[in-house]
Amino acid sequence: MAATLQAPPAAVERHQLYEDALAMLMGTLFIALGMLIYSKTMLLTGSTAGLALLLSYVTKLQFGLIFFTINLPFYWLAWKRLGWKFTARTFIAVALVTLFSRLTDQWVGFTHLDPVYATVVGSGLCGTGLLMLFRHRTGLGGVNILAIYLQERHGIRAGYFQLGVDLAILAGAFFVLAPDRLLLSVLGAGIVNLTLAINHKPGRYLGIS
């Protein structure tokens, strides 16, 4: 019987510092813009950002401040389970989204924003931004930390785990959002998490930070 030829495993390439920095900058800018688009149309995303958006709708407090505050308890898990480097990068990413979410509202203005378009583009921006961060071992706090931990330690797809959590958050928004906005938010959550599930499979991307 002829021997089966197997391709040698691909070498793991370590990211350079400037590559991590650029991914963090662009990823957080994308997410901040996506959050602005969502907030202007009263949509809701999932994860910690979705919870912060929901609380901002209810309390009228600024999204960035709420987002930064509710992420604080999750840094302990990141430090203990994923290392101080991941924790530091995640803290910086959360701080950047907090800052950019405030500045983007001054940089960008909308005279008309169709809700369906906002759903697709906003969720696409957030999903792509999260993908950039995940591939450079950076989370966005909260559920992202749990998702990355579960994928790396137990093989549970980050996108599928987040989808379940996101649907739970969206269920809590039933009495806050209009029915059409709630349905569009569910669609948006699916786009974000399918983007991650399809493009962030274990072993597919071998670069490390």
Automatic annotation (TrEMBL):
Q: Name where it mostly resides.
A: membrane
> Which controlled-vocabulary keywords does the entry list?
Cell membrane, Membrane, Transmembrane, Transmembrane helix
Q: How does this protein lie in the membrane? A: Multi-pass membrane protein
Compartments where found: Cell membrane
The transmembrane residues are 21-39, 51-74, 86-104, 116-134, 155-176, 182-199
Where do the coiled-coil regions begin and end? Answer: none
Q: What name does this protein carry?
A: YitT family protein
